[in-house]
Amino acid sequence: MATKLLLTDVAASCVKQIPSNYIRPISDRPNFSEVERSGSIPLVDLEGLHSHRRSEIIMQIGQACQDYGFFLVRNHGVPEKMMNNALLMAKEFFKLPENERMKYYSDDHRRSIRLSTTFNVKTEKVYIWRDFLRFHSNPLEDYVHEWPPNPPSFRKDVGEYCTGVRALVLRLLEAISESLGLEKDYINKALGKHGQHVSMNYYPPCPQPELTFGVPGHTDPTMITVLLPNEVPGLQVFKNGKWMAVNSVPNTFVINIGDQMQVLSNDRYKSVLHRAVVNCDKERISIATFYYPSLDATMGPAKELIDDDNPAAYRNHSFSEFYEKFWNRGLATECCLLDLFKSSVV
Ligand code: OGA
Ligand code: NI
């Protein structure tokens, strides 16, 4: 039998035990008994963001970015049907026959669409319990023709979803700029030509979820990330020295700020560690939409946020330098990626 490259096809034939190349060292496992289950991340209701309540909502967003780096949004303007359709397309894509899925397989992160497994097959010895289909989506008309023609409504449904999420993100970036005391369009401009990448993550049921991760602890190398998980729990956020389970709330998105927001805000807002765990009986799907600066954008703390008490925490750098390091280092490494860009490091 030919070796299966994708987890979807490995998992289909593994009943009681996971293959040895998915077993993580004892010191690097989920430890389910230590997870905090009664906490929650802030929920921000965006209804009224364009009314007299704007400053109050902006304050809530700023507080969430500062204290958690994560928040849920409701009344976000993306119709529920669009969210469900996108999740359905992801689910159906991963159900396609292996030969149809494999047409998209690539281990080159520079490709504008690719299906792969784990995080980076080139650098990892122990794989994580995930396949992902990752593609660019802005401007939509430049990329939609590269997307899978199957399932038949993939391009239409996912295209609409991406347009809806983009409108939400533009509003959030304005709100976050204002919460930092910056001009409303500050972050939008700092991004240059926006990169919008979508990752459809597929986590098959796993016979031994205590030995592996869906995604190990990491921070996102983005400006901001919009996550839409299906109803199966799995996301955990690191808060006060503990992993805290994030419960899904119907019809909300999980928003988290990424490393580049930490840089831009000169450490006011923190890009927080998070991870996903898997479970024995239910497949988990999530759609992450990542917002990146353009590769040639120069990133650094906003000068308005630098003063004698708050010197620049990071050196200016091109986003491409940062992004290449992200892909080549692996996810769960000792020193965090941002440490390499501290202004004290030369
Ligand atoms: C990610 C991520 C979490 C999840 O893709 O960066 O953190 O719940 N995913 O799928
Ligand atoms: Ni993430």
Automatic annotation (TrEMBL):
PROSITE patterns registered for this protein in UniProt: FE2OG_OXY
GO BP: any one term: defense response to oomycetes
Chemical reaction(s) catalysed: salicylate + NADH + O2 + H(+) = 2,3-dihydroxybenzoate + NAD(+) + H2O
Domain Fe2OG dioxygenase: 194-293
SUPFAM superfamilies per the UniProt record, alphabetical: Clavaminate synthase-like (SSF51197)
Cofactor: L-ascorbate
Gene Ontology MF, one: L-ascorbic acid binding
Keyword annotations: Dioxygenase, Iron, Metal-binding, Oxidoreductase, Vitamin C
Pfam families linked: 2OG-FeII_Oxy, DIOX_N
Family from the record: Belongs to the iron/ascorbate-dependent oxidoreductase family.
Protein name: Fe2OG dioxygenase domain-containing protein
